Amino acid sequence: MDFTFWTDPIKVVNQWMMLTLTGWGLSGAVASVIANLVGILLLITGAMVLDIMLVWVERKVVARFQGRLGPNRVGPYGLFQPFPDIIKLIIKEDITPDGADKVVYNMAPIISLASVIFLWAVVPLASTIYGVDLNVALLYLVAAGALGTLSIIMAGWSSNNKYALLGAFRQVAAMISFEIPMVVALLVPTILAGSLSLQVITNTQANGIWFFWLSPLGALLFLISAIAELGRSPFDLNEGESEIVSGYHIEYTGMKFGLFYAGELLHAFTFGGFLAVMFFGGWHGPWAAQYPLLGAFYFVVKAMIGYWLIMWVKYTVPRIRIDHMLAFNWKFLTPVAFALLIVTAVAHSLLKGLGYWPYLLGMFSSNIILGWITIEILRASTRKQRLAGQAPKPVAQH
Fold first, then answer.
1. Domain boundaries, the chain
2. Do 253 and 93 form a contact (C-beta atoms < 8 A)?
3. Contact indicator for 56, 311 with CB cutoff of 8 Å
4. Residue 147 near residue 118, CB atoms below 8 Å
5. Does residue 396 sit in helix, strand or coil?
């Protein structure tokens, strides 16, 4: 029994719950619904507990980047600091601005957090630990992420605050713009695996070739787009304090603001998890197929590395102007993403039947060549602009 639990824990727990519930006189259909609901609640609870620890991780990491200590009073190494923070948020006064649309105003933070939790339904934590194996999981990822965009515009509009509305417009403009290169980047592992299913994409990398080695540019494009989708520096124009006093959630207090903050942290970790699934083998590792809990450990470690990269960028790169941010997307990131998609599709079709090493080296080299061409185009454009700025201006004739 113990060995079966370690090899397939979800199945063992589900069978135990079904036997217990049917033993209480419930029908099989009712017992199945209750067991599934309990599984959903356990997944949400696990995500929220993880979110609490991410608060501590985030504050510790930023403290190290900035030469500070971070939380170090409540519990060993400040580990229990998030709990008094939660109590503080719960007992703080809940304020609703005059003239606000109360229903929309109160729903926005709930939808913001729910849009992140919905993503966990398709994340393969291990070989037998996942919510559902959708054959269109990547489309589901994009659709669920759109709820986050909706929650932001709801929060900004319903607050009856022009600065909040301006912050919402900025963030929605960034999210809609950077969704295009993100979706194109998601098509890269789809081409390599031949499926939109995250399970198939993960298992395709079990042969030892992580998709990162086949498309490092795809991983980089996804990471940049994910940071922009999160609204984190250098793309945090929604929080330009000198211009719009903290953006779309400026009017939120107490636990409502806490839901926005929790959603942002969990979203960052979730994107780290998707980066691990699509480009770094997901849960695969030594003995992960035999012991799913070990595979879940590998997944969390890889997701934390991706999350750490996102934090690294946030706390070291300064904020850029809104026009520069959108020009960077439309004039650089999106064209490069479409060029990469074409190169990946052509190279994959030509090289997939040539064997392990020719395929690996050919795919990797195609990315390097595309990156080199992109850098040369940028260098030529920069040189042209510099020379145009240095050219003597014509003297006006009087």
1. 1-91, 99-379
2. yes
3. no
4. yes
5. coil
CA 202, 115, 65 angle in degrees (round to 5)?
A: 75
Q: How far is Cα 119 from Cα 165, in angstroms, rounded to an integer? A: 26
Residue 378: is it exposed, middle or buried by C-beta count within 10 angstroms (0-12/13-18/19+)? Answer: exposed
Torsion angle of C-alpha atoms 387, 389, 391, 395, degrees rounded to 10: 170
Tens-binned pLDDT, residue by residue, of the chain (398 aa): 445 767 777 778 888 888 888 888 888 888 888 888 888 888 888 888 888 899 899 999 999 988 888 898 888 889 999 899 889 988 988 888 888 899 999 999 999 999 999 998 899 988 888 888 888 899 998 888 888 888 999 999 999 888 888 888 888 888 888 999 999 999 999 999 999 999 999 999 877 789 999 999 999 999 999 998 888 888 877 666 566 567 788 889 888 988 988 888 899 999 999 999 999 998 988 888 888 889 999 999 999 999 999 999 988 888 888 888 888 999 999 999 999 999 999 999 999 888 888 999 999 999 999 999 999 998 988 888 888 777 676 666 66
Q: How far apart are CA 117 and CA 270, in angstroms?
A: 9
Cβ(160)–Cβ(200) below 8 Å: no
- Candidates 328, 345, 340; CA nearest to 178 is 328
DSSP secondary structure letters along 361-377? HHHHHHHHHHHHHHHHH
HSE-CB at 391 with a 13 A cutoff on CA atoms is 8
Residues 6+ apart with CB under 8 A from 218: 185, 188, 189, 211, 279, 340, 344, 367
- Is residue 95 helix, strand or coil? coil
Q: How far is CA 72 from the centre of its chain?
A: 29
CB 334 within 8 A of CB 181: yes
Instruction: Catalogue the long-range contacts made by 9-13 (C-beta closer than 8 Å, 24 or more residues apart).
Output: 9/128, 9/129, 9/292, 9/293, 10/39, 10/128, 10/129, 10/292, 11/128
Q: How far apart are CA 330 and CA 174, in angstroms?
A: 11
User: Is 90 in contact with 254 (CB distance < 8 Å)?
Assistant: yes
Q: How far apart are CA 174 and CA 157, in angstroms?
A: 17
CA atoms of 196 and 202, how far apart (whole Å)? 11
Measured distance CA(188)–CA(336) in Å, rounded:
13
